[in-house]
Amino acid sequence: LQSLQNTDKAWMLKLMTCFSKGDIQNYEALVTAHRDDLAKCNLLVQNAAFLKRKIQLLALIELIFSKNVDNRTISFSEICANTNEKLDTVEYLLLQALSLDLIRGEINQVKKEMDVKWVLPRVLNRTQIASMANQIENWKDKVNDTVKNYTYDIN
Question: What is the spatial distance between Cα 91 and Cα 126, in angstroms, rounded to a whole number?
Fold first, then answer.
């Protein structure tokens, strides 16, 4: 892939990086900036709607992954802001993610929020691994505090 750098196809590498990161903002900026290049790739043109939905799903997964495991209740408005989905169709995006088994949880239509219980693991970059290590450390501290309190109550 790195062979694409410093060529007229470098935008393809950036496009793949957007998918890897679930970065919908940079994806849409690239699509706009390289509209003419994209138009030359029939496969990308024919699958534009599919690719847009795929990056929205990846952006949703990234949003969920960035949340603390103890609090993965996410408002529809936050999901819309991070996936560039319209508020009136965000439930369809969530239903699709649920049906593809990318996430598990419950949609609360009254409160307009999603309570995520599980997210499909994916390949992690160093920043995400560091974030996960931090979450594990916080969890360990909570377990230790619970054990201390439990031990104190018994004695």
Answer: 31
